[in-house]
Please model this.
Amino acid sequence: MEQLLQQVASGLANGAIYACLALALVMIYVSTDHINFAQGELSMFSAYLVWQVMQWGANFWVALPIVVLLSFLIGVLVERVILRPLHTAPVLSIVVVFIGLLAIFHSLAGAIWGHTIKDFPSPFPNIVFAGSGYIGPHQIGMILVTIVLLVALFSFFRFTPLGLAMRAAAQNPASARLAGIRVDWMLALGWGLAAAIGAVAGSLVAPAVYLEPNMMASILLYGFAGALVGGIASPGGAVAGGFIVGVLENLIAYFGNLLEKSTGVYVIGNGEKLTVALIIVITVLTLKPSGLFGHVTVKRV
Amino acid sequence: MTLLGRRTLLAGSGAIAFALTLAPASAQKKYDEGATDTEIKIGHTNPYSGNASAYGTIGKALDAYFKKVNDEGGINGRKINFISYDDGYSPPKTVEMVRKLVEEDKVLFVFQTLGTPPNTAIQKYLNAKKVPQLFVATGASKWGHYKDNPWTMGFQPDYVTESIIYAKHILANVKDPKIGVLMQNDDYGKDYYNGFKQGLGKDADKLIVSHVTYEVTDPTVDSQMIQLKNSGANVFFNITTPKFAAQAIKKAAEIGWKPAHYLNNVSASIGAVIKPAGFENAQDIITAYYIKDPTDPQFQNDKDMVEWKAFMQKYYPTGNLIDSSNAFAYAVSSLMHHVLKQCGDDLTRENVMRQAANVKNLQLPMVLDGIKVNTSPTDFYPLQSVRLARFKGEKWDLFGEILSNESSTQ
Amino acid sequence: MVTGLALLPLLGGKTGLISNYGFLQLSLMIVYAIAVLGLILLTGFNGQISLGHGAFFAVGAYTSAVLIDQASWPYWATLPVAAIVCFLVGYIFGMPALRLEGHYLALATFALAVAVPQFLKYRHFEWFTNGVQGINIFKPDPPFGMPLSADQWMYLIVLFVAVVMFWIARNLLDSRTGRAMMAIRDHSMAASTMGVNVAHYKTVVFGISALYTGVAGALHAIIFEFVAPDSFRFELSITILVGAVVGGIASLPGAVIGGIFVQVIEKYADALTKKLTAAVSLPIDLEPWTIYGIALILLMYIMPMGIAGGLAALWRKLRGS
Model:
C-alpha cells in the first residue's frame, strides 16, 4: 500500500512534467491547428537560456520573465519567417519543417552548452513537510504552476476577445478574416504564446530531470499522448491527460511487479510500461476519438 | 613474414611473442594500404549527431590529439591523417561509414569506434577484411576474444571485470547483503549485470532481491528507485549512464534510502554526475576508478592534468573541461601513438595488430598511476585494472590495492 | 533504363568505375526507395498519415534475420515471408487506425515506432530476437560462381525486387483499387456514399504499405548482415517520412528521389559541417543536425510539394512559357 501511494505520487510528479509540455502543444494546436513536434526542443532551448541568464548572476524569478519574453519573440519570429510562406503547403511539409526545427534547436543547444548534464536549481523552497517523502517540494510547485497556467490559458481563450479571435483564426481562417481578424498575426501570436509556455515548462522540467539537450526528446511523446488522450483542443483535458499518462505508467510497472512477485511469472515490468501505457491511450482514443474531455466535432461535408 | 591466418596466430602465438621481443621493428619499410613514407591514415566513426552526440566530443578530442602529434613532427616522420565520420550511433550507418573508410579512404586501420551495437555490426566485416579494429570505445567483455576475432581489440577495463570487483567487495564487506540493481536495459547494462551475477557466485539469485530496468527514453528513474527501496535492499548497484545516475543518487536521498551504494565507472565523473546530484547525497558511494577525473580536486596539480589542460586549451579550445570523455580520449590516443611508434617502418595491418598485442607495462597519461597497459597475443584487454574509491566530501578517496580480474581473459 | 541499371555491375566490375562501396550506396538508395514507396502508398495515395513506418521496417528485418539465423533459410526465401508477416501486422494495425484520423493516427504510429525496439528486447522474445545483442547473419555470395562481388550481387537482387515492387505499385494505382484509394484520400465520405468500402480499403492499404516497407527492411538486414534494436530507433521512422515528403508524397518517382535523398543527406550534412568548421572559426562546434535541419526547411520552402512536385511544376512552367 505504502509503495502504491509512492508510485501514484511519483506518477503525478512525472505527470506534471508531461502536462506542462502538453499545455504548450495545446496552445499551438488551438491557435494554428498544427502539432508542433519541435515544441520539446524549443522548451529545452528556453530552459538553457534561463540557465544561462542565471549563470550571469540573475535570480530565477528574474531570469524566467526575461526568457519567457525572449521565447515569445523567438516563437513569433519562427512563425513569421519560417512558417508564414508555407501557409498553403500540405500538412506533411509542415511536419518536415518541424523536424528541421527540432534538429536545429537540438544541435545548437549541444553545440553551445555541451552535452554533460547541468544542475538546474529548483525555484521552490526546499522545505520538509508531511508527505514530502512521497512527493518533493519541486514536484508540488510544478503541479501548482501547471494549474495556474491552465487557469490563465482557459480564461484567455474563453473570456478575452483576443483569445476568441485566435481560436476563430485557427478553426476557420476564411470566416475569421471576413470578421476582421488579422489571421496572420493571430498565428504568430499563438506561436509566441506557445513558446512562452514552453519556456515555463522547460524551466520546471529541467530541475526534475537535469538539463541536457535530450531532456525533452522522450517527454514529447508523453506530452503528445497526454494532450491527445485528454483532448488536444482543451487545455484542461491536456493537463488531465498528462497526469493520467504519468500515473498510468507507474501503475503498470507496479502491478506488473506485483504479478511477478505473486505468480513468479514475468509479464510486464519497467521495460514495457511505456508501450502498455501507449496501447491503453490508443485504445481509449479509438473508443473516444476526441479524447476523454474533448468535444465531438461534427464533420462538415 | 607471411600473412598469418587465424589458426596460425592461435597456435603460434607464443612463438610470435618470442620473435617480437628479439626484433621489435624491422629496418625494412613495409606498407599496407593507408600507410606511406609520409602519412598514416586512421579511420574512426562516432555519433556527432542524434541522441548519443554527447560522445561526439571523444572524436573531436582524438582529432585534436593527432593534430598535436602532427605539430610535433608526426610518428616516425609520418603525419597522421585522422578521418572521422558521423555514425549517429546506428549500427547500419556505422557499417556504411566503416566500409567507406576501408574501401574508399583506404585507411590502415579503424580506431576507437564507439558503442557496443555499432562495433558488433562492423566486427565481422573488419575481421574478414583483416583490418584492425583497435581500442574500441566500449567496455563490453567480448572485444578481447582474440581467438574468434583476431583483428579486434578493446581498451578500457571491461564491464564484467568491474562488476566482479564490486561483487567481491560486497561479499567481503557487507553483512547479510540484500542487493537491488538498477540497470539500463541494453547491452551495456546486461554486460554489467551478467558480470555482477558471475561475481556473486552461485547465490547470486538469492542475494539480488530486486532487479529493475529503465529505458533511455524514460524521463526519470523515480519510479524504479521507489521499487528498489521497497524491496528492502541494503546494497544498491547502480548501472546507469550519467543523467540517470544523477537522478538515482538524488532520488535515493529524497526518499531516505541509504544502502551501500555501488556506482558504475561510466558515471563516476564528479563534474557531470556527482556535483549535479549534490555532494551531500553522494557521500560514501563506491566506484571503480581508472581515468583521472578532471573535476576531482585531488588531481588539480597532477602532472598529467596540467599537461592535459594545456593540450585542451591549445588544440581543442571548444572542448568541455569537466567532461571526462576528453581525458579518456587523451589516454586512448596516447596508446595508439605508442603502438604506431613501436611499429617502426613496418606499417602493415598485421604488424599494427602484432604491436597492439605487444604493449608491456605502459603507463598512459590520465590513467591512474600504477594501472598499466599490458597486452600479448593471448591478452587483448589493454586496461584491466581499477582501484576502488569512496566518495568523501567533494572527491573520490581511493582505497585498497589495484584490482583486476584475470579470469576475464580467455 | 532498368536494363542499364542492371548492367552496372558488369560495367563497374570491369572498369572499376563503381566500387563495391558504391554498389552498397546504390543498394541502400533502392532499399530506402522501397520503404518510402510503402509510406507514399499509404499517405500520398490513401491519405493516412504514419510517423512510425520504421516499425514495419524493423519487423521485416527481424523476420528475415530470425528465419536465416534460427531456421537456416536461404535469404531469398525469407523475403516473401517478411512480406506476408508485415502485411498482416500492417493490416491488424490498420483496424484500430480506422477509427483514428490525423493527429490521432500520428500518435498511434509514433507510439508504434517507439514501442517496437522495446518489443524486440522483451524478455520472452529473447530466445529468437537475441535481445539487445541483435542477430548476426551472413551476406549471400553470388550463385553459380558468377563473376560478381557480393555487393554487386546484392545490388542486383535489390534492384530486381524494387523493379517488381514499383511495377506492382503502378498497376495497383492504375486499377480500380487505386482509384478507390485515391477517392478515399480526396473525400472519404463521398467515396463511401458511392459504394466504396472505405474500411476494407483502408486496412488493406495499411497492410500493403507495411508490406513494402517490411520488404525493404528485410533487404536491409541481408545487406548489413546484422539486426539489433538500435538499428531501428525512432529516427528511422522520421527518415522514411522525410524521404516521402521531400521526394514527393503522391508520386512514384518521388519515392526514388526520397530514397536517394535520405541516403545522401546525412553524409553531406556531416561533410559540410566539417568544411564549415574548417573554413570559418566559430566559437562553438557546429553539429551536423544544424545543417540537416536547415536543408529540410529550405527544401520545403522552395518545393513544398517535394522534389518530384517541384520538378513537375518547373517542367510545366518551362513548357508553358
In short: The mean pLDDT of chain B is 88. The longest strand of chain B covers residues 395-404. Chain B has 14 helices and 13 strands. The radius of gyration of chain B is 21 Å.
